[in-house]
Amino acid sequence: MTEKLTTRALNRATLHRQFLLDRVDRSACDVVEHLVGMQAQEPFSPYYGLWSRIGSFQADELGSLLLDRRVVRASLHRATIHLVTAADHARFEPLMRPFLHRRFASSPFGFVTDGLDVDEFTAAVTALLEEKPRTRREISDLLGSRWPDRDATALGYAGSFLVPSVQVPPRAVWGRSGAAAWTTAAHWLGPVGPAATIEEFVRRYLAAFGPASVKDVQTWAGMSRLKPVVEAMDLRVFTDERGRTLYDLPDAPRPDPDTPAPARFLPEFDNLLLGHDDRTRVISDEDYRRGIIIGGKPTLLVDGFVHGTWKIARDGLDVEVFRPLTRAQQADVRAEGARLLGFAGVAGDVRL
């Protein structure tokens, strides 16, 4: 008989693999790789995501990794900006490339390549980006002057989807600022190793997000037709309280559902909240309908589940909770919030 996992059991398993039950003593590079990338459309959100997961994390560590080209920002999972290690970009970008191309073809800009010599176009984009990093506006203007009969904005988007490219520093370097400028992945990262297999991709996902359904994997990656792949792999099979079939690595940890879960402050679009089709393991249906995930609000976890939102102000931390907290939970949130303010370099109080 297939073992059933409660929502709370799934919650604790996922938090453990996301390093949100206990902070870990690992490098930022190791954690980014373990998580198979971090959502990064907000340039500084990964800093807060790593702070919540690593015991001794300092912002300069991630900034140095970006400057040293050991981690990069690129359009990958779900065609959104993710922070990944350089090694994982080489492993997984080729797997996602067909999806990115299909995503562009079905976008409002897909029309721009109709009748266009794609090889000539991608060669032109590559030359422009490797001459020097360029913003999307610069790319659009330059491509528009070469193909004046086509929509320049659409050409710019086509270039970023059809040519593997990455954003370059100082964008997203802590304490600095810069426009989103792009160059080719090959130019920025140099020679790369072989691409991963889709089976390796699924295993990496399960190690960071499992147990999970096929639809969970597909939602996280932005891919489709993974069911035959997953079903053919040597994985443990479970069911959840909703009757869904879940898969997991045979030796993956699944903590006791009663394991304490401390308060955690997560940044906007943290992948904990985006890594599954069924998100009830971390947020209730009621709270999901508040629009905080789609709206990109930073979230507060209490007892492992989304319980509120937060915002750093000039004079402290404002926390909005959805339901009353016990005294112990209030103390936990205040203590963690004070540590968050220390990391952010802001003096002030935690206001609940």
From TrEMBL:
Q: Which InterPro entries match?
A: AlkZ-like
> Which keywords does UniProt give here?
DNA-binding
Annotated GO molecular function terms are: DNA binding
Entry keyword annotation includes DNA-binding:
yes
Q: Which domain of life is it from?
A: Bacteria
What name does UniProt use for this protein? Winged helix DNA-binding protein
User: What species does this protein belong to?
Assistant: Saccharothrix texasensis
